[in-house]
Amino acid sequence: MNEASRGAWGWVAAFALLVSIGFSWRLLPSRALPESGREVRERPGLLAAVSRRPEFAFGFRNVLADVAWLEGVQVAGNRKMTRWDYDRLYELLDGVSNFDPKFEIPYLLGGLVLGESPDHAQKALEVFERGKKEYPADWRFPFYMGFTYYFSLGDAVAGGRATAEAARLPGSPAYLPGLASRMLSEAREPEVALSLLASIVRQESDPARRAVLSRRIREVTVERDLQALERAVETYREKMGTVPRDLSDLVRAGILPGIPEEPNGGRYLVEPGGKVRSDRVSQRLRVFQKK
User: Fold this and answer.
1) Backbone dihedral angles phi then psi of residue 284, each to the nearest 5 degrees
2) By the 8 A CB rule, do 86 and 55 touch?
3) 230 near 274, Cβ under 8 Å?
4) At what angle do helices 140-151 and 190-203 cross, to 10 degrees?
5) Integer Cα distance of 18 and 28 in angstroms
6) First CA to last CA across the chain, in angstroms?
7) 3-state class of 40 per DSSP?
């Protein structure tokens, strides 16, 4: 076999190894317990293991980072992400940054998606912090840390401080100092949050990040509407001595001019005890609920 043939076969073998590594990460992450139906973690796949010792990537670190990120995009694209999906996404983002610490898109987009889950907001902050260490002059990392503190964890002080840090970096938008001051000085009310989100999404040019921010706007809108409807139901109870059977009773009683439109294409419903819910959103946003 001549030198050229050996080189060609070497590349074929390397490609086969990469495919098998990427495939192993898809096959090994979980299994279902038959007695409970719960998913539990198996030991990490080969790609995850190699990411912790990237020197064993033998010159294919960028390729393996792409493999891990493509898998992460698939996980993040699930319409209804479970806790396991968020855990999986964090593991994949960790692998991407181990292989290629300068790959900035996974930090920004992956961190935003993780932050949609209150249970994973701290993981999102870890992802942003790692990106911030690689790009200390990029205002977007402290900015999205502030976003996560405020909108996922309900920590207005930490959110305002991180946003103020972003405002001091070169190239940051002119609206950031005002945004930081509002986070620091105003209560975490849904109306305030929607105003902040509107100013953020207007400045975001990346379509994927805009989509994440738009989802958060819909979530906060639902919480705002549910709070307003529950206040109206309480007014109806005080006036009529009972809860309304349907939300349209609030309009007929002159308490509301109309029922707000559910932003996800669903409906708002009142339950027998007077609690109001959306038929499209299963969980309330804890950050904006009264303590």
Assistant:
1) -80, 155
2) no
3) yes
4) 160
5) 16
6) 75
7) strand
Residues for the chain: how many in total?
Answer: 291
CA distance 251 to 190: 23
Q: In the structure encoding, which two tokens stand for residue 91, read together? A: 């593991």
Contact criterion met (CB below 8 Å) for 264 and 222: yes
Give the Cα separation of 130 and 113 in Å (integer). Answer: 16
Specify the pLDDT at position 191. Answer: 86
User: In angstroms, how far apart are the furthest CA atoms of the chain?
Assistant: 93
pLDDT value at position 198? 87
Q: Phi and psi dihedrals of 39, rounded to 5?
A: -95, 135
Token readout for 256 is 């509301």
Q: Record the tokens describing residue 40, joined without a space.
A: 């539990």
Is residue 220 a contact partner of residue 197, using CB atoms and an 8 Å limit?
Answer: yes
Written as one letter, the residue type at 27 is: L
Dist CA 33 CA 97 (whole Å): 31
Per-block mean pLDDT, blocks of 10 residues, the chain (291 long): 47 45 44 43 55 62 83 86 92 89 94 93 97 96 95 90 93 87 75 85 86 90 93 96 95 96 96 92 76 53
Residues in contact with 182: Cβ distance below 8 Å, sequence separation at least 6, in sequence order: 160, 192, 196
Cβ–Cβ under 8 Å, residues 37 and 62: no
